[in-house]
């Protein structure tokens, strides 16, 4: 305790007031004395200056006298009062620089060095007022030039290393006191906005400013405190490059520094920039406002210096690219290219929307961002990066950084492999893909038990991993998946299976990175990893951090609860992004699963529930949905067919129901005009919803009603005949390939005019109705056409050309690897159509008839020919057909199947008819039973049929010659044999609406066989029943 604590409060307060008064009085006395001394020294300085100017006793041409004047000036200097005195002092120091510099070689060297540094910092402050018209910047600029030049010191001091250390200390001090800020303001105020680097020789001040910018960057600063050089590069970066570029910076400074003659220290700059960004990473957001400007500078200057970088420098360069690319804001051109599916087919008509160029001296972030992406895609940049990762000695870090760059381009900037030179160059390099996969396979992590486990195995288990591990593997995994899937486009089937390609003139080279055995193992790994990724993307529990643990976590550097949850969500999103085909959270997918749920409920589903919002999906359902949309091939085909049928059934319950009073569609169709009448009466205008139950009333060739009430069978027979008519090549809407497979006819527009798209829309609806009614129709479609229906984009690649025109495909393969002079083949960028006997020349690109095909452009020609035949020529046909199909059946449901499976879904499987299966699910009526003698004779006769005859029998009874996909247990109504009476003169007849065969009592096997064959060969149609 102090003595003060025993005093009364009043006395304590008095003592405090007295103490404070003393402090205030001391400050005021000190301030008054300083002002008095400033005035005294200022007067003394003025007297000496006047004496030196008037030729008095005080001589300015003396080192000690110069030191005295500088000491006085630095003591009293105030910029608003003494700037003219400072200018006068600069003028004399420049004039007598050698005398002043001599003080650095004596006992006063530290004082002299300090004075020079202070004078130069005042010079920087003075130049920051360069917008003041009354200020003459010539002398301050000359001061900067003289006292930072070796030529000023060497003639006096003679020791080159000592001179360098002096200049380094002076420059470092200036940097700390706004040197680059002063130069930045000078450049933007004294140089015209229209200046360009080519004007350097015509604008003297420009050259001086450029030299001053470069000078501090060339020293190593070994004589200065540690980190001095980093401070210099940081100041240069912050003042010149981290803010939106002015015209002077963009058109003059950056091109000047990018010129090899200026010798910019590019590699040290990259190292300093990387260190600067790593220090900022803890405080800055993911996308930095300074990133576009810095990235543009790095890429622009790098165009001249990439070839001079050491191997370590190239690795630093790769780190810088990866750092800034991830911080780069998404450009408008990128946001317009979403990954989501689009049915638009007018890609060729869409012009690329590029950000506008600089206007009114201002540069926009979108413009600079787009320029950065363009510069990153140049041939030089690509070659530099490729050389770094293609070499055998490429490090894991180089491959990881490259993968991260590719991952960022595709995920953040929505860029696709064919549009980026770097990505497609990597995709077509088999050695790189092989190296990348082996790196992925070899990546390991240490588990909590201490065991070392491959990261792929951890992913396959669906086990959570650290952020560090996921950051290592996700970019590599994403890049490999994207590049390898793209490379498969250009790999011929023979190359894929490792067989030699027998084409005359073709080189024996393979782009396939893996053998068939390796590919099998790789596919298994990818399959297991994808299933594990779904577990990671949809975890069983939502991780939470209890409140009482937050403080403990923070004490060891762990972020807060909300930040941790954001990190977890970002991590889950990164796993989801590994699937590139579709987005998991599109509304259509969730709508699909709502019907999946309804499918469990069955016919008891209440109509009151229709339209109600469904509850959120469980984790298990989220995973199942992800598998069905992303990895349907891991689910057996039969199971997917069951799921599809449940989805259809649930949808039918909403639309058709089981009640007798629900609306349906009733149409009258003339037998001889099935297509014409159906096209008119089932048009979208007349019947917008084809999901409703359709009842058909038929008129025969004489205009009379045909016998029979449509219980579903007449409609099925009608739909079968309608589809046969509509897809008949003689109708003109479809053509057949050499293998007899159907695809849209390019000449359809010439036949029916501009209404051709309506016909394809109608045919798409009719095929959709067949699928909706679980009806098999024997329509063999070309594989490329089915692919166009299923894809999120309706365009298909060159390999599908083999299913359209094998001859053209073979010729293009020949051209691809032709070793002779391609120009001698006499090709140009045109194709010739011969539709309906009329020859038409079509240019593949603008001016194509005048562009010869050469070795350099033949790949482009090959892809353009394939694109024209497969996509452009029938684009509107396919779009209309797909829209019609989607009007009845959700395309998301069909995308569970590939093109071959869809063909099976449409037409049934080309498998022999199983009589045992048919017998097991056949009903009998009218006195027949499985043990009846006539039935035993019937099955013996059918067993003796050929497969073709069995199909005709099946078609006779059910209207389709192929068995149901899941067996005859799925046939509804069940196959039934009814007693047709004892009249042996009658033929067997059928009621297709009931899948009913009316079989007279033929006990003689020969008679039954002849009568049955005659009936099924005649196939009289509806009226036979």
Coarse shape: elongated
What distance lies between the first and last C-alpha atoms, to the nearest angstrom?
A: 120 Å
For the largest beta-sheet, the strand count, sense and barrel status come to: 4 strands, mixed
Q: Which consecutive residue ranges, at least 5 long each, have pLDDT under 50?
A: 335-357, 500-509, 545-550, 580-613, 1020-1025
**Overall pLDDT confidence:** 82
Helix percentage range: 55-70%
Helix tally?
45
- Structural class from helices and strands? mainly alpha
Number of domain units: 6
Radius of gyration, taken over Cα atoms and rounded to an integer in Å: 42 Å
Number of strands: 12
Subunit structure: Interacts with 26S proteasomes. Interacts (via the HECT domain) with UBE2D1 and, less efficiently, with UBE2L3.
Enzyme class: transferase
Keywords: Isopeptide bond, Transferase, Ubl conjugation, Ubl conjugation pathway
Pathway: Protein modification; protein ubiquitination
